[in-house]
User: What shape does this take?
Amino acid sequence: MDGIVIAVIVVSVVGLVCGVVLALASHFMDVPVDERFSKARECLPGANCGACGFTGCDGYAKALADGETTSSNLCVPGGDVVAKNLSKALGLTFEDVEEKVAYVHCNGNCDRSKDRAHYDGIGDCRSANLIYGGPEGCIYGCLGFGDCAQACPEQAICMDDGIARIDVRKCIGCGICVRTCPKHIISLLNVTSKTVVQCSSKEKGALTRKACINGCIGCKKCELNCPEKAIKVVDNLATIDYSLCNGCGKCIELCPIGCLKPGHLEMSHGAQQAL
Amino acid sequence: MLKELAIILMTSVLVNNYVLSRFLGICPFLGVSKKLDQATGMGVAVIFVMLMATATTYPVYYFILVPNGLEYLQTIVFILVIAALVQFIEIVLKKYIPGLHKALGVYLPLITTNCAVLGVTINNITDGYGFVQSLVSSLGCGLGFLLAMVIFSGVRSKLDGPETPKAFRGLPSTLIAASIVSLAFIGFAGIIDNLFA
Assistant: This one.
């Protein structure tokens, strides 16, 4: 009987002493956490994707708290909701977020583009690209090993028929795939973009055609017929000035290859959130 | 005296390596050994906590538990004391040495009552070490943990290549590699006594 009483007392006293010491320590050695930091951090989604240009959500929150930046619209995945909350919490002016979505500028799928070599090495784009730009006939085209799909935090990219396809409904516009792709054929487009170019080849028309029958041959039909003068063929590749394009769709009709397509980006995650 | 301490140190680093021979602390060993810098950070944090824990639990055992005949309570009291100690260290580091807190901060809560830390303190008592011997033994165990982490993070960086069969990717190949590294450490058994003879 005595034994158990002493045991209980000893353990309780040890526990109590530990508790008191901890309580005192946390009281006297408390480091005040910057209120603005915790407020900002609460507003951010916590995806740590780095689209804002800082090292994760903590980095952005810290930059806001320390006054390094005052833009509340840097969180692309969070969209307008996060920007609104941030500006409210920190007393900043609300700026509209340009919702973005990643787009793969290539349509050279398996039966459209020809391989120029057989590649049997390590199965990722980065490795394949190191060997003379990879096995694809078109050295600008998607290699299809899916580095971007692996890097995507939202599983928004799938490999279909040898090229990466991005599910705009899942894409949060963080831009990790843009930085991952060794061919640099993925770019971030504003969700308001109406027309997209599905090719990245800067080769002359004949050579492009030889490698892939879905490639832009630089015929300038779109450039000559665009009523808004929004398309220019630069380096044998149609490029769209999105500040001018109104999405009339004339170029899409006229393109003999079919590498100009309607964007259909209004279904995207970011655009849905903005509504 | 010095020779004895050297033997204790080398024994706990190599022969009785906590991870690879006694199989304690496997959770951080598998969890944080993916990258070298993380493995090193975790190892240093474990050394630190092991030393502090031994320095605290030794007096607790000999001045509180033994006089009251409560040796059987050592496990529960040690857990209590170590958990509070780690929390306390974290608060102190945060206040006075923010740099160190930034480096070790992530790992400290992970080790709150890591079985390797508890194992070191209890084994020091079981082996009948004095205070200085206990500290040296804890340092050795911590260094052994760091050594195992660093070696294994090197091994792991070579695992999971494209050649690994799908069924073995991830944990299975990691566990097999861990067992082989552990076998290598069993080769140290018996060499220490002769090393200092």
